[in-house]
Amino acid sequence: MTKLFIARPAPPEVHAALEGYDVTYRTASTPLSVQEMQTALRDYDGVLPTLGDQFSADIFTSVDTPRCKILANFGVGYNHIDVDAARRAGVQVSNTPGAVTDATADIAMTLMLMTARRAGEGERLVRSGNWAGWEPSQLLGMHLTGKTVGIVGMGRIGQAVARRCHFGFEMNVKYYSRSAKTLSFTAEHVDDLRVLAASVDVLVVAVPGGDDTHHLINAEILAAMQPHGLLVNIARGNIVDEAALIEALQNNTIGGAGLDVYEFEPNVPEALRALDNAVLLPHLGTSSREVRVDMWMMAVENLKAGVEGAEPPNLV
Ligand code: NAP
């Protein structure tokens, strides 16, 4: 019988969709240990892992002739899996694009608004019990409507953010990406990231994580930003040099940052947590029930295809 390993607790829809398979549902919500990853590759035909499960090259080489044919990743980002090493070991990798796009773009907007309008500070003020009431100069932030946004990585999520900015907030859209895009609204392609950073009010990071984009947003890019400029990162933590970002926020060389992801997630440095000009969310990009069920079902379709010898719809 085909054996499947599901690396996190799954909703009833998944159990129903996998009836007829020999499925091991892991009950822990923590990342897989090295031993669990090795067992998954060795003893199962298909595995459904997610963010935090570090399938490095070493894991693949440590298992002689894996039984596993597919790692059907739950999530669009798959930089925790060494895809080349997986291929060499005969293991396909798939992800769940599309399902996550709008939800993640919404979190980008949440972060833009919260950072621009100092909503985190305001919330903390009310909860502290020290709010003395409305006054004209309290917590003055930046008005977002009509400002300029710079999107770094004009893919699915980048475009969804750009659409929201353009149609919802009448913002000018500029972007830096590997390739220029044909879009249904005006957006300027800027081929120098430093130039983009210098010319926008909000810079939104939406490129995939990985070696190519590691510290793409570094001290030089942060220094190019305007003093009121806001950085929003909904992609992956290590795209931004977090130490350089903390320094820029501490010295107020940029206006603020809205982060959903962190360089050494889930560790968030005390220095960052202490900053009022940072809005910090716990990787909420896709965290709505409908979206998560859609992601599960996409991952399950990929998993089934992979173990049955068909082409998984979302092979990476
Ligand atoms: P996508 O459609 O593949 O878009 C990525 C974009 O980045 C593409 O336009 C690509 O250019 C561009 N790009 C890639 N490498 C680049 C580089 N080195 N320099 C400049 N541009 C580059 O991916 P997506 O679905 O929008 O997702 C983006 C990332 O968001 C995911 O990889 C994931 O890590 C992250 N994410 C986070 C959350 C969350 O919960 N916070 C949720 C979902 C996704 P081309 O179009 O030319 O290829």
TrEMBL record:
Domain D-isomer specific 2-hydroxyacid dehydrogenase NAD-binding: 109-285
Cellular component, GO, one term: cytosol
Keyword Oxidoreductase: yes
InterPro entries: D-isomer_2-hydroxyacid_DH (IPR050223), D-isomer_2_OHA_DH_cat_dom (IPR006139), D-isomer_DH_CS1 (IPR029752), D-isomer_DH_NAD-bd (IPR006140), NAD(P)-bd_dom_sf (IPR036291)
Stretch forming the signal peptide: none
Gene3D superfamilies for this protein: NAD(P)-binding Rossmann-like Domain
Gene Ontology molecular function, alphabetical: glyoxylate reductase (NADPH) activity; hydroxypyruvate reductase [NAD(P)H] activity; NAD binding
Record's keyword annotation contains Flavoprotein: no
Residue ranges constituting the D-isomer specific 2-hydroxyacid dehydrogenase catalytic domain according to the UniProt record: 8-316
Keyword tags: NAD, Oxidoreductase
Protein family per UniProt: Belongs to the D-isomer specific 2-hydroxyacid dehydrogenase family.
Protein name, per record: D-isomer specific 2-hydroxyacid dehydrogenase NAD-binding domain-containing protein
Species assigned in the record: marine sediment metagenome
